[in-house]
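Entry:
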Amino acid sequence: MNSESGSAGTGLSVPMEDLYEVAVAQLDCSRATFSGFRVGAALLSGGQIFPGCNVENSSYGLTLCAERSAVMHWASAGSPGVPEAIAVVARNSHGEVVTAMPCGACRQVLSDLPDSRKLQVYTGEGDGITMTLLEELLPHAFGPADLDTGGGTD
């Protein structure tokens, strides 16, 4: 799917271009000290855009991906609305914009969002922006419904 003008073709509450612009702006906020691979993300929920960027750590396992950063931003704002879409943009160490799909850990975190099967994931750049539903990226996901929590709490 190529980028479409406005929100009419995507069914989003905010134009996809606005979501993408926020993700691109997050590339400059990224802390990619070690890899030089910068990633920006923007999560759309409740008509609001929640930005995120990757933050690397010298203990690589503690690195936070841009997608999870955006989800944490949404959660710290009170988890408003039901997430509709996330845009993900990356720039390699040579400064070139490249396509980067969410990693496995990010796919799992995204799958725990409300109504996540319908979450639209936008990747790419320019006329090459594509949309994939999260359920296509993580079929048969393990999620809250698989836990016998007896109701649990958030």
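The chain is about 20% helix and 20% strand.
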